[in-house]
């Protein structure tokens, strides 16, 4: 791997760490280590304010090109900020879908007018986005989407259909929607990539209630909803959708791993305090978790390296499968370390329950191997794209 931290990078690290230390206090102190996976429904208004505060300090979209409102930070500096943000306990980024997915995609495929219209709102932290990909009959299989897009008499695109598991749709200003522009098309042909405002009567958002009693994702119904823009041309949707998924496997993975590290540290602390660490099986599983996280970091740095070649690009296909399975096992380990305490919910008697951090980790990590590409789909991608094996037989 070739991720080097120069003296300038280390100066950047000190700047970022100091800013986070100075600003994650006062009115934002309660946000530290909050709002992550399983906790995304908490502190919504406060995290919106934090997003704008980050922007005022110049800490949103730091890897974007300066002409798009970013700092043009190097990969090394983006890695540093992701790590320092997680180390400082920065709250879950409520604008991450815009910054990490919508924005880079618009920058790559949008017209100058589209870039000027949409990118500033993401950089400022004032406009939030959600992702309209999955459907009731098309979860990990994006090529099976049925949501349709038609043009009215004035040439404007209208969207009709249903999306599901849409994180943050209830607070988002915009949704990027994969829809079928050619009603006779099948598979990855005839798809369009649309930018749709959420504040219209023809868009209905319904929360999906979870076992915890909370809701952080939703189902969204488009009933002849107006699309503000089509990114690219009709039929380009599949190409753009795949490019967006590539942005999803970016530098944020290092910040994710820092959050995993704090979860593992908490498990180790509790195991020492309650005596679980004296059990040989628990010690072995903690060691296995530590080694898995160490390997995960090394592989992520290799994927992000400037001299990453074809082998590293193929290895990137393994990343989602690796971290999702690892994190699910960490949730199991957390419950076994807690012992009887894992069965008790403190606080309110009725949902939404006041779960502890590790209880939320366990419940949410059960979904890690499903969302963002199920383990089954990831194994197919590894076999077909990484190893060149024959494609899975598909029914018609």
From TrEMBL:
Residues 130-224 form the Acyl-CoA oxidase/dehydrogenase middle domain. GO terms for molecular function: flavin adenine dinucleotide binding; oxidoreductase activity, acting on the CH-CH group of donors. InterPro entries: Acyl-CoA_Oxase/DH_mid-dom, Acyl-CoA_Oxase/DH_mid-dom_sf, AcylCo_DH-like_C, AcylCo_DH/oxidase_C, AcylCoA_DH/ox_N, AcylCoA_DH/ox_N_sf, AcylCoA_DH/oxidase_NM_dom_sf, Mycobact_Acyl-CoA_DH. Residues 7-126 form the Acyl-CoA dehydrogenase/oxidase N-terminal domain. Its cofactor is FAD. This is Acyl-CoA dehydrogenase. One of its GO terms (cellular component) is plasma membrane. It comes from the Bacteria. Belongs to the acyl-CoA dehydrogenase family. Gene3D superfamilies: Acyl-CoA dehydrogenase/oxidase, N-terminal domain, Butyryl-CoA Dehydrogenase, subunit A, domain 2, Butyryl-CoA Dehydrogenase, subunit A, domain 3. The keyword Oxidoreductase applies. Keywords: FAD, Flavoprotein, Oxidoreductase. The keyword Oxidoreductase applies. Residues 235-386 form the Acyl-CoA dehydrogenase/oxidase C-terminal domain.
């Amino acid at each position: 791997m070739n991720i080097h931290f120069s003296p300038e990078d280390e100066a950047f690290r000190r700047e970022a760490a100091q800013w986070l230390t100075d600003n994650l206090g006062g009115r934002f102190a309660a946000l530290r280590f909050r709002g992550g996976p399983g906790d995304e429904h908490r502190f919504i208004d406060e995290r919106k304010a934090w997003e704008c505060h980050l922007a005022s300090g110049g800490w949103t979209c730091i890897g974007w090109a300066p002409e798009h409102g970013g700092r043009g930070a190097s990969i090394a500096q983006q890695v540093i900020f992701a790590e320092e943000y997680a180390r400082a306990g920065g709250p879950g980024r409520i604008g991450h879908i815009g910054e990490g997915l919508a924005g880079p995609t618009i920058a790559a495929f949008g017209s100058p007018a589209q870039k000027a219209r949409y990118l500033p709102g993401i950089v400022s932290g004032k406009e939030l986005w959600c992702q309209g990909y999955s459907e009731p009959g098309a979860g990990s299989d994006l090529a099976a989407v049925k949501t349709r897009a038609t043009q009215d008499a004035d040439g404007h695109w209208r969207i009709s259909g249903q999306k599901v598991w849409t994180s943050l749709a209830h607070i988002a200003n915009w949704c990027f929607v994969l829809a079928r522009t050619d009603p006779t098309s099948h598979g990855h042909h005839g798809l369009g990539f649309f930018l749709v405002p959420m504040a219209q009567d023809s868009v209905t958002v319904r929360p999906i209630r979870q076992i915890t009693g909370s809701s952080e994702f939703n189902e969204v119904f488009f009933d002849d909803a107006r699309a503000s823009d089509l990114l690219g041309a009709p039929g380009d949707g599949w190409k753009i959708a795949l490019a967006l998924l590539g942005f999803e496997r970016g530098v944020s993975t290092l910040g994710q791993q820092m959050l995993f590290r704090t979860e593992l540290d908490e498990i180790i602390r509790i195991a020492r305090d309650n005596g679980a660490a004296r059990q040989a099986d628990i010690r072995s599983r903690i060691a296995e978790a530590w080694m898995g996280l160490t390997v995960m970091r090394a592989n992520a740095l290799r994927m992000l390296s400037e001299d990453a070649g074809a082998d590293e690009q193929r290895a990137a296909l393994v990343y989602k499968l690796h971290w999702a399975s690892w994190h699910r096992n960490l949730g199991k380990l957390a419950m076994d370390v807690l012992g009887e305490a894992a069965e008790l919910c403190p606080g309110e008697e009725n949902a939404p329950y006041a779960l502890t951090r590790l209880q939320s980790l366990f419940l949410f990590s059960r979904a890690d191997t499903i969302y963002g590409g199920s383990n089954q789909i990831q194994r197919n991608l590894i076999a077909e794209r990484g190893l060149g094996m024959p494609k899975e037989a598909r029914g018609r």
